[in-house]
Design brief:
11 helices, isomerase, binds phosphoenolpyruvate, TIM Barrel
Length: 251
Amino acid sequence: MTTRRKLIAGNWKMNGLKADGIALAKGIADKLASASPDCDLLVCPPFTLIAPVADAVAGSRLAVGGQDCHAKTSGAHTGDTSPAMLADLGCKYAIVGHSERRTDHAETDSVVKAKAAAALAAGLVAIVCIGETLAQRDAGQTIEVNRSQINGSLPEGANAANTVIAYEPVWAIGTGRVATPAQAQEVHAAIRAELVKLIGAAEAGKMRILYGGSMKPDNARELLALPDVDGGLIGGAALKVADFWAIAESC
Ligand code: PEP
């Protein structure tokens, strides 16, 4: 029997203008006011919407996070956002190392590790994303790739309270192709075994490992019931209140 409380996190990516974002977040917060799904709920809007969304849901049980952060607190980094700035707006979490950042911005494990460390230093919970590509899976390298990424991306001082892992097979993100329960459980268990080596059995046993990759209302229950799946990082299905809420209710 696990004591890990599930986390359902919405990654809105580069979607939404102010009115859409506020309506979406308020829609979720309103539902949370009168119902208590068996999970924590988080939305990660684009940077432009963090302030209005955080204001709109202030006082509710819906947490707000960033989709990325810089590794430094301040300085000459045009266009970037520091973890301290996220915290200042009311964020509790920062996603780091999403595969779209690793691809679009050439972020390596060491960059992701530095960002995660900076997030922890600012008092945020880091959601560290890892996951294999289809070519790596087809080459039989899935476990090795995820082990290597977790080793390279996990910050010093990571523990179950300040860090969440998100396993997101790249081939399942935004594709409608979802990992089978057996595929997801195999990788989640391997990640947890690697965490045992890195942070010890007690913290590894408490650390949340989310699944991400085309999780939807119709497949969430099966995935969320797996022994080592402790929630979901949701892209497309996080953009509709009804879908996001249905996933939350599947916990
Ligand atoms: C994601 O962006 O992290 C993600 C899992 O997207 P989707 O749910 O759309 O596959």
